[in-house]
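Thread: "does anyone have the structure for this chain?"

Original post by V.I.:
We have the sequence but no experimental structure in hand. Need at least a predicted one for the grant figures.
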Amino acid sequence: MSIPKLLATVVPLRRVLAISLALAACLAAAQTPASTSFNPDNVLARGPANTTITVADVLSEIAHAPEAERKAVLASADTLQQIASNLLVRRVLAAEAQRDGLARDAIVAAALAVARDRILSDARLARLDAQNAPSDAALDAYARGMYQASGTRFDRPAQTHARHILLANTGAESLNKAQEMVAKLRAGASFEELAKANSIDTGSAIRGGDLGFFGAGRMVRPFEDAVNKLAKPGDISDPVESQFGYHIIRLEERREKGRQPYEEVRKQLIDEARTALLNESRVAKVQSMAKDFVMERPAIEAMTKPATN
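Reply from O.Q.:
Generated one for you, tokens below.
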């Protein structure tokens, strides 16, 4: 269950802390040795009035990005320079705003306080998540419980696993070529290598013609009829004509209708279990704080009324 769905049963005020676990993970990742190996005080850019942008500024800017994107940024000097430049523009503008007294505006001051609260609360939640991280045993037990209660979620239809080589149909010679290739395959030639070298289905050709598992109705009718006639794994079809050309098919495996084994879906369920368990600790934290909250209802309702002169 996602954080927003779980917190939908909690009073709206408590949703304030219902930010995503992914954000917490990014905050935690930003504090890993890979990030702190840089000197955070190193200056990357300088502007007027002694404004500077440091390593820490850039790392904080990219902290919420996925790990792969952070690595890409840190591998590109041009990208780092652009980020530093963008941050410096904002810092100079912020210094001018401070000089002009804009920080004393009530709305601006409140926005600054809210932004500070958001950053610090995100960091606090990231630390709480780390402190409340469930053990492997707890995760597995929770995941198995989810699996047992999943109903038909992990049911799957009967499926077939096959490879094919697709040859263009440019006339009579195309069928002859396909028949010659079938003969080579039945004589022991490598299906995978011939697929890579000859199949015009480039998506599967790079995988040696592998189409993976597919259910009934997923393939064009001539292909499906031909693959259904193959009796056992390793059987190779005669050339099969469809609107795409000539297919040569090899049966790899048949899988009967049934439920996916727990081990096949374990990783997915473990991830869901981790989110659910950490979410429970967050909800408990929100509830422990919210019992002391006081909502000033008259003041809130006053905001909904039109202003009078």
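V.I.: this helps a lot. The first helix runs from residue 3 to 7.
O.Q.: and Strands lie at 43-46, 52-54, 155-156, 159-167, 210-215, 240-242, 245-255, 258-259.
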